[in-house]
Amino acid sequence: MIRIEICANSVSSSLIAQEAGAYRIEFCDNLKEGGTTPSYGQIAIARKLLNIKLYPIIRPRGGDFLYSELELAIMKADIEHCRELGCDGVVFGILTADGDVDKERCLELKHAAGNMGLTFHRAFDRCRNPFQALEDIIALGFERILSSGLEENALKGAPLIAKLVDQAAGRISIMPGAGVRPETLKELIGITGANEYHTTAKGTVESEMHFRDVRTGSPQEEFVIEQTDINVVKSLVQIAQSFS
To answer: pTM of this prediction?
Structure first.
């Protein structure tokens, strides 16, 4: 079965994705930063309203994936909140300064997660040796790896993703992400053989503000809101179901 995971930037986007048939939500804030951990309130309300699987991202900031002790403590606290709220899983990844998977710190976060599922996010695409990183992540007990194949989008990285799927041999799910849209999904399925695909499926909606005569900020961005597009999700789900 081909499944579609939506990277949702709000509770509203999560509900749109659910209505359109998404299998799972990766719940993020600050998509322009690559995704950071949503607030406790957002996660709590999302868990209350969603019937599909909910995996908040555990990432205290944008930038690299080398974290201080303080940042690690924040990540542990966020994971504990997700567990208490009944989330199905969490999404994180930690690297060493040399570009390897930080197995020791990832294991600490795994222990904090308890029985929740684990996705290793696109920190994987910053690893110096993806084939060794895959083995390390499998040994840590993750369910899946989100990857663009170390390229700017999954279609460019599809040949490497296919190799990772072969190497994984069913031990872990390799989930292509970045540039997954209705116009690319069929080709990605054909090349990679992956069973899960990750996308924001985002569009834009106009702000309902009437007063817009402001001189601060960026009015072009301030009055346009990014949100999951129900029609894009429906198209992706339809394509996935045609393969299933």
So the answer is: 0.95
Bin 119: left if φ > 0, else alpha if -120 < ψ < 50, else beta. Answer: beta
- For residue 54 the two structure tokens come to 């909910």
Rounded to an integer, what distance in angstroms lies between the CA atom of residue 69 and that of residue 119? Answer: 22
Q: How many CB atoms lie within 10 A of CB 78?
A: 24
Query: Side chain identity at 11, as an amino acid letter?
Result: V
Contact of 63 with 96, CB cutoff 8 Å: no
- Residues with Cβ within 8 Å of 214's Cβ and at least 6 positions away in sequence, in order, are 222
Q: For every one of its 244 residues, what pLDDT tens digit does the chain have, with 9 covering 90 and above? A: 999 999 999 999 999 999 999 999 999 999 989 999 999 999 999 999 999 999 999 999 999 999 999 999 999 999 999 999 999 999 999 999 999 999 999 999 999 999 999 999 999 999 999 999 999 999 999 999 999 999 999 999 999 999 999 999 999 999 999 999 999 999 999 999 999 999 999 998 888 888 888 777 666 677 888 999 999 999 999 999 999 7
Domain around 138: 3-243
Number of domains forming the structure of the chain: 1
DSSP letter at 200 equals -
What CATH number is associated with residue 141?
Answer: 3.20.20.380
Instruction: Find where tokens 């699987």 sit.
Output: 53
36 CB burial (10 A radius; 0-12, 13-18, 19+): middle
Number of neighbouring beta carbons within 10 Å of residue 85: 16
Q: How far apart are CA 115 and CA 97, in angstroms?
A: 29
Write the DSSP string, 76-95.
Answer: HHHHHHHHHHT-SEEEE--B
